[in-house]
């Protein structure tokens, strides 16, 4: 099933921080891992990923280091303590959001 890209736009930060919570990664590695873990539901383009990473770096949610591997220099991204706190907040926000969406689409009333 093809997912509407507009549904993904609000969750990309959550997805990227979740990947980085496990290990540091370089950009293309994040793209392939996200596609793999989501059964190719989430296939980010580099033009989408890198602006998000730059924003996360500006907010100090991730740090960047360069490392030479196989004759090429790659930028590796690592989540910071501030990034882990932001990830926890995003997870809580996502849980509350999905709970309310499910309540509406399944006709449940929480009141």
Can you tell me about this structure?
There is one protein chain. The chain has one domain (5-105): Arc Repressor Mutant, subunit A (Orthogonal Bundle), CATH 1.10.10.10. Helices cover 59% and strands 16% of the residues. The protein starts with a helix and ends in a 6-residue tail after the last helix. It contains five helices and three strands; from the N terminus they run H-H-E-H-H-E-E-H. Strand 2 and strand 3 (72-79) form a beta hairpin.
In brief, what are we looking at here?
The chain is α+β, with helices and mostly antiparallel strands and 111 residues long. The protein has helices at 5-9, 12-22, 27-37, 46-58, 81-105; strands at residues 25-26, 62-69, 72-79. The protein has one domain: Winged helix-like DNA-binding domain superfamily/Winged helix DNA-binding domain (Arc Repressor Mutant, subunit A, Orthogonal Bundle).
Main traits of this protein?
5 helices; Arc Repressor Mutant, subunit A; 111 residues; globular; alpha+beta; three-stranded antiparallel sheet; single chain
